[in-house]
Amino acid sequence: MSPAASTPAYRRLSVEERRAQLLDAALSLFAHRAPEEVSLDGVAEAAGVSRPLVYRYFPGGKQQLYEAALRSAAEELRHCFDEPHEGPLLPRLARALDRYLSFVDSHDAGFTALLQGGSVVETSRTTAIVDGVRRAAAEHILSHLEVPDPGPRLRMTVRVWITAVEAASLIWLDEGKQPPAAELRDWLVEQFVAVLTVTAARDAQTAALVRALASADA
Amino acid sequence: MSPAASTPAYRRLSVEERRAQLLDAALSLFAHRAPEEVSLDGVAEAAGVSRPLVYRYFPGGKQQLYEAALRSAAEELRHCFDEPHEGPLLPRLARALDRYLSFVDSHDAGFTALLQGGSVVETSRTTAIVDGVRRAAAEHILSHLEVPDPGPRLRMTVRVWITAVEAASLIWLDEGKQPPAAELRDWLVEQFVAVLTVTAARDAQTAALVRALASADA
């Protein structure tokens, strides 16, 4: 992701390169202001191209560009939870959270806009993009837990924890990124174990998982 | 809140009564379908009045009616956490959750629409209404904890738990209201204690609160 300024307007880019350049410029604008404050003119200026060129790539205008930028951000967020199935489980979760919080840190206002909606261009399609990230994160985590056929109580616990991660990230941005990211990460990992332990009292499958986590930890 | 059918159209209602009647009709429609599927004609029909009369009360049309219905639902949700400051803390929380889950149960699709947004009439104003409910719930709970001047770690824990309650409620609706509401309530109360306990390891104020909770429980 090179800054737009390093790509002189006269250089001939491929369609894919140009598209990526425009999405980069749009993402960085959406990352720092509310979607309703982003204009196609602003995107053209940030990318060092003409407004008609932006329209050529995104004939649907701002809404289409916004959705494409969200999809690209969502893709990046999905990769945060893409962790090799190796080594103890909790350090894997900690590494995924490190990537997630680093995404939150670098996109701040854009992350808030992505999750909180409340923009004039919010639609059921953009909500579906965000829901897709949540579901993908839950599936990644469940696959790491290596529980064959996870039941509804375990699934609910994981899904609720993911929204807790989101909420904590939004509050963290709101509070000027306090506490430090490493503390927030550890707190979230410990919360994960704590909420699983609560579920374990009612669910044999989760109880077995918690025992496995404790023995791997020991 | 009498059903619209019990109010014959010829009865002369006061302005306030008429407004409440229209909001009731709107709420019950928004409660069972997505906002984009609700029409002013439908509201007029449900309330047994003419479409022009609905416009007289809500000249802003569907958007205004939607926001007024949301505000009325938000007001009802706020009251769920309005609990006397009497008796042990966790049973107070359980009673608040009983009211909250009963609201979720009776408004199902409307609750989902309220929280998930993603509707064509979603705006930053409707998001602010929902955020207001969250903040009010957090303030209610913090006031029950009787911690003078709660610090950022305790506040974050309470706010994150509230979003966990919301997420669990949405998933609960999605899963055909399983597990039973009483089990979900107990699970949420136990989660509250569990996440406070995690925070207590890093925050003296929360640690004192967890000790007080444990001794009240004993």
UniProtKB/TrEMBL annotation, chains A, B:
Entries under Pfam families matching the protein: TetR_C_46, TetR_N
InterPro entries, per the entry: DesT_TetR_C, Homeodomain-like_sf, HTH-type_TetR-like_transc_reg, HTH_TetR
Source species, domain of life: Bacteria
DNA-binding keyword on record: yes
Record organism: Streptomyces carpinensis
Protein name (record): Helix-turn-helix domain-containing protein
DNA-binding region: 39-58
This protein's UniProt keywords: DNA-binding, Transcription, Transcription regulation
Keyword Transcription regulation: yes
Domain HTH tetR-type, residue spans: 16-76
